[in-house]
Automatic annotation (TrEMBL):
UniProt xrefs under CDD domains: ABC_DR_subfamily_A
Protein name (Swiss-Prot/TrEMBL): ABC-type xenobiotic transporter
InterPro entries to which the protein is assigned, alphabetical: AAA+_ATPase, ABC_transporter-like_ATP-bd, ABC_transporter-like_CS, ABC_transporter_ATP-binding, P-loop_NTPase
Keywords: Antibiotic resistance, ATP-binding, Cell membrane, Membrane, Nucleotide-binding, Translocase, Transport
Family, as annotated: Belongs to the ABC transporter superfamily. Drug exporter-1 (DrugE1) (TC 3.A.1.105) family.
Compartment list: Cell membrane
Domain of life: Bacteria
Domain ABC transporter residues, every copy: 10-235
Biological source species: Streptomyces marincola
């Protein structure tokens, strides 16, 4: 088991990166605690890929301070590389090499690699281990890339869209493996276009837009920090909203947007639902079509960026 060291796994302060007239990073700040899973979300062109590639040592920021496991990822790359795992989306693998040959080769480069056979079995590489890379499907290449990132027992692993192109069974197997990594003390920094993936896996979420981190916190914390959850029901028009508001928990609000259609915002949970149904019963109201909608991480993302998260 990895023992998390002192200080954050990643500490970026004021990172700036420009490509000609285009500013990819515009004073980005990001802290990743050791032994956690952090998901980086952002619309296309937001700067998340540049930020992660800077952490991996593949990009050199024009300004700012960056430390990964306490090291400068460029100046101290030789010391850092053996301690991190990087999942590449493309390139980095010889087209003519067989999948298992590549995995064994990378394993031999590390002092204490994982058991290659066991890792291959977990990720379902057994069925195409003798297939050359050029003949692998997109999902098979994705599984191999994940295996290559993990085989060296990294302290910190960067996963770029780890379940892109995977079927539901393979996706859930990958999620289970990522949770095991975290439980073993490994820090995971992943990018994803799947909100469900971020909500399922991440201890913390960083939303990036226009080259900056515009929100950072736990998925539940970010969801609570945005708009309220909503409970809707229908009943006879003109209900006594003053009485209803007095019965609701503190922080809730009741409105009648249109005759007979009622909207209650607040912390939608068992207590609020019970309060509303009890109030309706006391006032002889037959509430119909009761629906609830919890405020989700996707809602927060859309509110903050005004854009959908698409691959």
């Amino acid at each position: 088991m990895h023992t998390p060291g002192a200080g954050p796994a990643v500490e970026a302060v004021g990172l700036v990166k420009r490509y000609g007239r285009t500013t990819a990073l515009d004073g980005l700040d990001l802290t990743v605690r050791r032994g956690t899973v952090t998901a980086v979300l952002g619309p296309n062109g937001a700067g998340k890929t540049t930020a992660v590639e800077s952490c991996e040592g593949y990009r050199v920021p024009d300004a700012g301070r960056l430390r990964v496991l306490g090291l400068d990822p460029v100046a101290q790359a030789a010391a850092l590389r053996p301690r991190i795992g990087v999942m590449l989306q493309r390139d980095g693998v010889y087209p003519g090499v067989r999948a298992m040959e590549m995995l064994r080769h990378v394993a031999r480069l590390h002092a204490h690699p994982l058991d290659v056979g066991e890792l291959a079995g977990r990720l379902g590489l057994d069925g195409f281990g003798r297939t050359t890379y050029r003949r692998l499907s997109g999902g098979q290449r994705q599984r191999l890339a994940l295996a290559l990132a993990l085989v060296g027992r990294p302290e910190l692993v960067f996963l770029d869209e780890p379940t892109a192109g995977l079927d539901p069974q393979a996706r859930h197997a990958t999620w289970a493996l990522i949770r095991e990594l975290r439980d073993d003390g490994v820090t995971v920094l992943l990018t994803t276009h799947h909100m469900e993936e971020a909500e399922e896996l991440a201890d913390e979420v960083a939303i990036v837009d226009a080259g900056r981190v515009i929100a950072h916190g736990g998925p539940a914390e970010l969801s609570r920090g945005g708009a309220s959850d909503v409970l809707r029901f229908t009943g006879r028009p003109g209900l006594d909203l003053v009485s209803l508001r007095q019965a609701l928990p503190v922080g809730s609000e009741a409105t009648e947007p249109s005759p007979g259609n009622y909207r209650i915002t607040g912390d939608v949970g068992p207590r609020l639902l019970a309060t509303v149904t009890a109030w309706c019963a006391q006032h002889g109201v037959l509430a119909d079509r009761i629906t609830t909608r919890r405020h989700t991480l996707e809602d927060v993302f859309l509110e903050l960026t005004g854009k959908e998260l698409r691959p």
